[in-house]
Write a structure and sequence with these properties.
Layout: H1 28-41, H2 44-55, E1 63-65, E2 68-73, E3 78-81, E4 94-95, E5 102-107, E6 112-118, E7 123-124, E8 131-134, E9 144-149, E10 157-160, E11 164-166, E12 171-173, E13 175-179, E14 195-198, H3 219-228, E15 236-240, H4 246-252, H5 254-273, E16 283-288, H6 290-301, E17 306-312, H7 326-333, E18 339-344, H8 355-368, E19 371-374, E20 384-389, H9 397-411
Helix pairs in contact: 1-2, 3-9, 4-5, 4-6, 7-8
């Protein structure tokens, strides 16, 4: 399981066993000092302390402090990125004191920097760094770059978490998290965050090759802007990719959806939460279309787990003739202590984009006990039902991207 890249102790936390450095990225200044001491005299004990400190930070990515960065590589290679004009020679890793420990240390200013490794022939992502960014440069075959995001950059970043597999469902899915700005800063190492789980995780981010060339939701971009403006509180977003079984898992088959919901609550979420600094409060869940439908079912079925749900252009029609549609289930679920956001585009008269279905669900929830208000004038709370209608909006990621700020401000208002 991928370690939390932002782990840092409180003031009374013990140091790790390597050179007296505090754990995680918070120990970067100490590890850089260990590096300087090791190369100064090549004393075996000093090199051993450096190696142990780096081993304890395997898969956390580069270490940065006070304008310097340390990259560990498997062999001698070049480190090229935005911070050095993508020079193929400016920063090269080398063996420390003729050992098999390879590092590159060089000047890197405070900021958000994309980079890659270059061995003289092939560009590659940094295998020891879970942080990444999408890149639509035609020459980048990966479509991604590794990222060094220093404290004070003003931006959050994406991180690849461990894959989540299910023997019951017979599939695995990629899991990506958004960390808010300064998540890895030493001074916020003890800070915990609310968590939002979202469906269709491959469609959530600023991948310009995604989603029929619509790009994704760009929720990471929206959060950077909203957090910086003081309108949204820092939040971790975790998106698990959907699979070829998506439609059945998200609601077309009640049996498959029930199995997926059990997996979501009992396997996926605990595994993912163990990898991030979660505040231990109820999480939120959200999605669009069928992802919005299963989000509502999850939150209403497991109110002990979820404190909020968001459904954008929810597909509320499955089961409408068989008695298992959401409108049929709402009286059974009853009023729950949930903040709920629902919206649609389209046309109510034609029920395009599920506009009429969404209005019906809105009214049924209000009748059961939720208090309706309309975005952007929605206040959060366990009785709050926030609604928005965007006339003519289409059923795609571009439309959901345009409305993302509405549910973020409602569910995670800055205090």
């Amino acid at each position: 399981m991928m370690p939390d890249a932002g782990v840092a102790p409180g003031a009374d936390a013990p140091p790790d066993t390597a050179g007296g450095c505090v754990p995680g990225l918070a120990g970067a200044p100490c590890v850089l000092d260990l590096h300087d001491a090791a190369i100064a005299g090549c004393e075996p004990g000093a090199v051993g302390k450096l190696r142990a400190a780096l081993d304890e930070r395997a898969n956390l990515g580069p270490l940065w402090s006070a304008g310097r960065a340390l990259f560990r590589t498997d062999q001698a290679t070049h480190v090229a990125g935005d911070f050095n004009g993508w020079s193929q020679t400016a920063l090269t890793s080398a063996a420390v004191c003729n050992t098999d420990l390879f590092v590159a240390v060089g000047p890197v200013a405070k900021g958000y920097w994309a980079y890659k490794l270059f061995d003289g022939q092939t560009w590659s992502l940094d295998p020891q760094n879970p942080a990444f960014a999408y890149d639509d440069f035609s020459g980048n075959l990966d479509g991604k770059n590794s990222v060094l995001n220093t404290p004070g950059s003003g931006k959050g970043h994406l991180v690849k978490l461990a894959r989540a597999c299910s023997s019951a469902l017979g599939n695995c899915r990629e899991v990506t998290a958004y960390y808010p700005r300064d998540y890895t800063a030493p001074e916020t190492g003890a800070t915990t965050y609310p968590v939002l789980f979202m469906h269709d995780g491959q469609n959530l981010w600023d991948d310009h090759d995604c989603c029929f060339n619509h790009t994704g939701w760009e929720i990471n971009v929206a959060l950077d802007a909203e957090i910086a403006a003081g309108r949204v509180a820092p939040v971790i977003v975790i998106g698990a990719a959907s699979t070829t079984s998506r439609n059945n898992e998200y609601g077309l088959s009640p049996t498959a959806m029930a199995a997926f919901m059990t997996y979501q609550v009992e396997e996926l979420q605990p595994q993912a939460l163990a990898q991030v600094r979660w505040n231990r409060e109820k999480v939120a869940v959200g999605g669009s279309s069928l992802g919005g439908l299963v989000s509502m079912h999850l939150a209403l079925t497991y109110p002990q787990t979820y404190g909020a749900a968001a459904s954008l252009s929810g597909a509320f029609w499955p089961g409408q003739d068989q008695g298992f549609a959401l409108r049929d289930k709402l009286p059974v679920y009853g009023k729950q202590a949930l903040a709920v956001y629902v919206d649609s585009g389209g046309n109510v008269a034609q029920n395009s984009d599920g506009a009429a279905d969404t209005a019906e669900v809105r009214d049924l929830m209000a009748a059961i006990g939720w208090t309706r208000s309309d975005s952007p004038s929605c206040a959060p709370g366990p009785n709050a039902l926030c609604y928005h209608f965007e006339p003519g909006a289409t059923h795609d990621e571009l439309a959901w991207k345009a409305r993302t700020w509405r549910f973020l401000r409602f569910l995670f208002p800055a205090t």
